[in-house]
Amino acid sequence: MLRIPQALAYCLVYLVTPFICSAERNQPMKPGADKPKLFLCLDSATVAGKQKLVYAYVDGQKTECMPENELLTMINKARHAEEQAAQREALGLASSPDATKHSHGKNLIQADLRGHDFKDADLSSADLRGALLARADLRKANCQGANFTGADLRNTYFKHANLQAANLTQASLGGAWFVSSDLRGAHGLTLEQVKYVQTFYQSRMDSTFLRSLQSRYPDKLKKPRGAWGSERLPKNGKGKRNLSAYDKKAEEHKP
Question: What does the pLDDT look like over 28-40, one tens digit per residue?
């Protein structure tokens, strides 16, 4: 009777799973493949009762052996970061002083930038009219003089962001976080818009607007509870989203 080596037998069993197993350790993953090709770590397969570990090749480099779910999560995060970096480069959004000229005054009208990572990005004087920036991370972003007219800024994170002289006319700000940001000289900002802003904690702003906040919404100047990204837009007593007129307009763009 033909005897199959134990390591090969384990691989034959893994062939019926959603990923492909191979005893060959040096076969790289095909470029551009939608799903990563996983390989069984033979050391873990030969020990009874031990969790089966897998590895893959990413950009020609072999990963460490780890459980399938952990490996797929790691690969997906890396791909997502690469995709965002490529899109930022295509849009000319600089994150370093040497590349400032590439993003200064960038035309991003109605651009779909939801959930993007713009930490340290230079958006000064950028035209973001009607842009979708919901849940975007703009920590330490330079947005001085940027035009956010009609933009969707719901649940957007402005921490240590420079928003001096920015235009926020009719921007949707439900759930937005302004923490230690500079809003001096920003215009178009009304009390109706900021009604559902999460916080203006330790942010700088013009004295007239600051007094209005202290009078109408003093809690928005206090340290917020929870963490950014964990909250949803406020709801009214009937369990429906309590949106301003500006937020209702942005809601139509939501997928």
Answer: 444 444 667 888 8
The pLDDT score that the predictor gives to residue 105 is 59
Asked if residue 86 is part of any domain, the answer here is no
Q: Is residue 84 part of a domain?
A: no
CA dist 160 → 33, 49, 157, 219 (Å): 39, 51, 10, 20
* Domain endpoint, select from 53, 79, 105: 79
End-to-end CA, the chain: 60
Instruction: With beta carbons less than 8 A apart as the criterion, state whether 171 and 149 touch.
Output: yes
Three-state DSSP at 141 gives coil
Cβ contacts of residue 95 below 8 Å, gap of 6+? 88, 119, 120, 121, 122
Q: Give per-residue pLDDT as tens, 214-252.
A: 999 999 999 988 788 655 544 433 334 444 444 444 444
Distance in angstroms (rounded) separating the CA atoms of residues 119 and 83: 16
Domain hosting residue 40, numbered range: 6-79
0.90 surpassed by pTM? no
Q: Distance between CA 1 and CA 234 in Å, rounded?
A: 70
Paired sense of beta strands 54-55 and 57-58, if any = unpaired
List the one residue out of 128, 85, 88 whose CA is nearest residue 105: 128
